[in-house]
Write a structure and sequence with these properties.
The protein is α/β, with parallel strands linked by helices and 282 residues long. The protein folds into two domains: 183 residues, NAD(P)-binding Rossmann-like Domain (Rossmann fold, 3-Layer(aba) Sandwich), CATH 3.40.50; 86 residues, Orthogonal Bundle (N-(1-d-carboxylethyl)-l-norvaline Dehydrogenase, domain 2), CATH 1.10.1040. The strands form two sheets. An eight-stranded mixed sheet has the order 5-2-1-6-7-8-11-12, sandwiched between helices. Strands 4-3-10-9 form a four-stranded mixed sheet. Helix 4 packs parallel to helix 5 and helix 9 crosses helix 10. It is globular, with a radius of gyration of 18 Å. The two termini are 36 Å apart.
């Protein structure tokens, strides 16, 4: 499969690197220092999914540079891993690269990214992804997989993509070492990730604490419980279907299954602030 990863930071590099390691033809587009380091010495992936050095990656700082250097063959899969505030610009750059039979997948945090891709790319080509493993960019050319809670989920928000096409994508991810499943309820799962992020990330950033520390402290746990309850109230008021009927149902999953394997993780929002970068809620 020919794959383009647009916005290849930590998550995008892990996904692209693992797919390339499995034999897929992968192109990364990302920040120049990271791309240059990979060109020179390969992509180093470390952490809980093992240690790998991947050298069969084409890397560019922009789509324009990619095209200028002659990489113009069509892509079957285009993965969007930019911050949410860059989704519209990313979709505009990717639109000319989309061909019949290709799909564009949002592997991003936040709600609304898939809708933007549908608007610009087309409802029959845009897919959503729910990612709940963590990775960090250790240094240019080196990414580390830090935590894993559940499989990546990929699906069509409006049901415009055949299940067979979804399975082809998710099977490729899984065979590459990224546990992934298709879903017919991607919107609800993305809402679940919003719950997870909203409860943990701002509080962990303000207090500079890991997810596990937040869950262990009675005071921060109470704050997160209120955040979860408020999101449920907003979703219900908007007529949004959730995977859980009551906040208590989600909290059982949250504290019992999702937080424990990610307990040592610091919010990526904290890393953005520490490095002077814009956050996704700015």
């Amino acid at each position: 499969m020919r794959v383009l990863v647009f916005g290849a930071g930590a998550i995008g590099s892990v996904v692209g690197g693992m797919l390339a390691r499995a034999g897929h033809d992968v192109v990364l587009v990302g920040r120049a220092p990271h791309m240059n380091a990979i060109r020179e010495a390969g992509l180093h992936i470390t952490g809980i999914w093992g240690e790998h050095t991947v050298r069969n990656l084409a890397c560019y700082p922009s789509v324009a540079q990619m095209q200028a250097e002659g990489t113009i063959e069509p892509f079957e899969l285009l993965l969007v891993t930019v911050k949410s505030y860059d989704t519209r610009e990313a979709a505009g750059q990717l639109r000319p690269l989309v061909r019949p039979g290709s799909f564009v997948v949002s592997l991003q945090n936040g709600y609304g990214n898939v809708e933007t891709l549908e608007e610009i790319i087309g409802e029959e080509r845009a897919l959503g992804g729910r990612v709940i493993f963590g990775a960090e960019l250790v240094e240019p050319g080196h990414v580390k997989v830090t935590v894993y809670a559940e499989e990546v989920l990929i699906g069509s928000r409006l049901g415009r993509v055949e299940l067979e096409d979804l399975i082809e994508i998710t099977d490729a991810f899984t065979a590459a070492g990224i546990p992934t499943k298709p879903t017919q309820k991607i919107s609800q799962h993305i809402w679940g990730k919003v719950l997870y992020n909203a409860a943990l990330n701002p509080l962990g950033t303000i207090l500079r604490r890991t997810y596990g520390e937040l869950a262990e402290n009675a005071y921060t746990r109470e704050i997160m419980d209120h955040v979860i309850a408020e999101i449920f109230a907003v979703a219900h008021a908007a007529g949004t279907e959730m995977l859980w009927e009551h906040p208590e149902d989600y909290r059982k999953l949250f504290y019992g299954k999702l937080v424990p394997p990610t307990a040592a993780h610091y919010p990526s929002m904290l890393r953005d602030i520490e490095q002077g970068r814009r956050t996704e809620i700015d």
